[in-house]
C-alpha cells in the first residue's frame, strides 16, 4: 500500500510549472506558475527566489493560479543579466510584458498583484510608467515609494539610520568593483567573500524582528571558513549592481500616488527597520483608495516574522 501511494501522480494543480515569457528585448524570462483559477501575480524581494512564496499560496491554489516571475539576476533567472543600470525600471518593463501576456492568455482585463520589498518598489515604477488599468487591486508589503531621505521625506530606506547603512553598502560596492568581471565567487579574495556575506547577513537580520526569525536567518546565512572557501554565490554580482543603483538613483515615485485609484492594502511591519511604520502610514493616507494593515510584532520580512498572519491577509486580499 505504501509503495502504491508513493507512486501516485501529483495532481496538476499542485505541480509548479515553469513557463517562459518573451520580454520586449527578446529575453525569455522564467515564470513559476501553480494553481487553477483566477490569475494572481506575486513579485518577490531583493535576493529572493519567487518560489519562496509557495508555502503561503499552496492552500489557495484551488481557487487561484499564481504567476511568480523571477526577476532578472535572481532565482530561476539568476543567469539573465540586467543591462540597464536602472534595474527597477527594467523590472517594471518586464512586469508590463508579463501582465500583458497573462491578461491575453487568460482572457481577463486585469488581475490582483502583491509585491514585497523590491517587488513592491517595482510596482511603484510600473504604476508610474504603465498606469493601473490592468491591476484590479494591489497588496503593497512593507515598501515605501521613496528610497532616499529628503528634506520633506524622512521615511526612506533605513529611516534615521540611512546615512550609516548606505555607507556600509557603498563600502562593499567599492570593494567589489575591481572584481566585477570575476564570475566565480570562489575566485574572490577570502576577506572580500567574508565581507560580502557579512553585509548580506546584516541586511537579512535587519529585515526580521522576532527572535526565532533571527535564529533562522543566522542558521541559514552562517558560513564557516571552510564552507565559505568553496561557496558558489551565483547572484553576488547582480546584488552588488542593485545596491549601486539603490545608492545612486533617487527613486521617488510619490508623484504617481494620487493616480493609483485602485484598491490598495498597505501591509506594514510594525517593527520594520527598513521602512518606518509611521511614514508608511503617510503613504496610505496619500492614496485615494487604500487601507493599512499593521502587524505590530513583524519586521520588514512579514512572511518570515508572521507567516500565518501573512497567509490570512493574502487570502483576505484575494477575496476582497
UniProtKB/TrEMBL annotation:
<dbReference type="InterPro" id="IPR000073">
    <property type="entry name" value="AB_hydrolase_1"/>
</dbReference>
<dbReference type="InterPro" id="IPR050228">
    <property type="entry name" value="Carboxylesterase_BioH"/>
</dbReference>
<protein>
    <submittedName>
        <fullName>Alpha/beta hydrolase</fullName>
    </submittedName>
</protein>
<dbReference type="InterPro" id="IPR029058">
    <property type="entry name" value="AB_hydrolase_fold"/>
</dbReference>
<dbReference type="Pfam" id="PF00561">
    <property type="entry name" value="Abhydrolase_1"/>
</dbReference>
<feature type="domain" description="AB hydrolase-1">
    <location>
        <begin position="39"/>
        <end position="306"/>
    </location>
</feature>
<keyword id="KW-0378">Hydrolase</keyword>
<dbReference type="GO" id="GO:0016787">
    <property type="term" value="F:hydrolase activity"/>
</dbReference>
Amino acid at each position: 500500500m505504501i509503495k502504491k501511494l508513493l507512486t501516485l501522480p501529483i495532481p496538476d494543480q499542485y505541480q509548479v510549472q515553469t513557463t517562459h515569457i518573451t520580454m520586449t528585448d527578446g529575453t525569455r524570462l522564467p515564470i513559476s506558475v501553480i494553481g487553477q483559477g483566477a490569475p494572481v501575480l506575486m513579485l518577490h524581494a531583493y535576493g529572493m527566489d519567487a518560489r519562496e512564496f509557495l508555502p503561503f499560496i499552496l492552500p489557495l491554489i484551488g481557487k487561484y493560479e499564481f504567476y511568480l516571475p523571477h526577476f532578472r539576476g535572481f532565482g530561476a533567472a539568476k543567469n539573465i543579466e540586467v543591462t540597464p543600470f536602472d534595474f527597477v525600471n527594467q523590472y517594471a518593463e518586464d512586469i508590463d510584458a508579463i501582465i500583458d501576456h497573462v491578461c491575453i492568455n487568460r482572457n481577463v482585463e486585469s488581475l490582483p498583484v502583491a509585491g514585497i520589498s523590491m517587488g513592491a518598489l517595482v510596482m511603484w515604477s510600473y504604476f508610474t510608467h504603465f498606469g493601473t488599468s490592468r491591476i484590479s487591486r494591489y497588496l503593497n508589503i512593507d515598501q515605501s515609494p521613496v528610497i532616499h531621505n529628503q528634506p520633506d521625506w524622512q521615511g526612506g530606506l533605513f529611516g534615521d539610520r540611512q546615512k550609516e547603512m548606505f555607507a556600509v553598502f557603498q563600502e562593499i560596492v567599492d570593494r567589489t568593483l575591481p572584481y566585477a568581471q570575476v564570475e566565480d565567487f570562489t575566485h574572490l579574495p577570502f576577506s572580500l567573500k567574508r565581507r560580502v556575506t557579512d553585509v548580506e547577513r546584516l541586511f537579512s537580520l535587519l529585515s526580521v524582528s522576532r527572535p526565532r526569525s533571527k535564529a533562522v536567518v543566522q542558521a541559514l546565512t552562517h558560513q564557516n571558513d571552510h564552507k565559505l572557501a568553496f561557496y558558489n554565490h551565483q547572484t553576488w554580482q547582480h546584488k552588488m549592481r542593485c545596491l549601486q543603483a539603490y545608492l545612486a538613483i533617487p527613486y521617488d515615485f510619490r508623484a504617481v500616488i494620487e493616480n493609483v485609484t485602485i484598491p490598495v492594502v498597505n501591509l506594514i511591519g510594525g517593527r520594520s527597520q527598513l521602512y518606518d511604520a509611521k511614514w508608511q502610514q503617510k503613504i496610505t493616507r496619500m492614496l485615494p483608495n487604500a487601507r493599512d494593515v499593521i502587524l505590530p510584532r513583524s519586521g520588514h520580512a512579514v512572511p518570515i516574522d508572521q507567516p500565518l498572519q501573512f497567509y490570512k491577509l493574502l487570502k483576505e486580499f484575494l477575496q476582497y
